[in-house]
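Let us work through a complete example step by step.
Step 1: write down the sequence.
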Amino acid sequence: MSADDLQALFPGPVPVSVAGRDLEVAPLTLGELPALLAVLRESAAVLGGGFDPVAFVVDQPELAIRLIAVLTRQEVDWLKGLSLDEAAALLVAAIEANESFFVRNGRALVAAMARAMAAVGPSPLPAWSNADTASPT
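Step 2: predict the structure and record it as tokens.
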């Protein structure tokens, strides 16, 4: 296996300059996977069949901030001050840094999330819903 093959399978950090900071976005670690999966579960219904980083940032800014924070290890407060272009650039760098993992395991991740969601069943109504506060008739 050549060095290029290894680099393709296990890429190093992706350099990106955002808001005056020179960052290197490194691939996620095993310990960071639960936080990523939590955000992806929330965004699965929103994302549907495809993923457009710019549209995601514009359409779902709160989820985008949380996803970018997990993928880049940056503080949420700093991320909130980024321009939309800067946030999208940072998200793209994070996706590039983890591309080999997602390409190799994307289908397995989607299938695992689907199994987990099916096992849990429909989510219960939140405690503040009308169903909990309505008086019996």
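Step 3: interpret the result. Residues 99-120 form the longest helix (22 residues).
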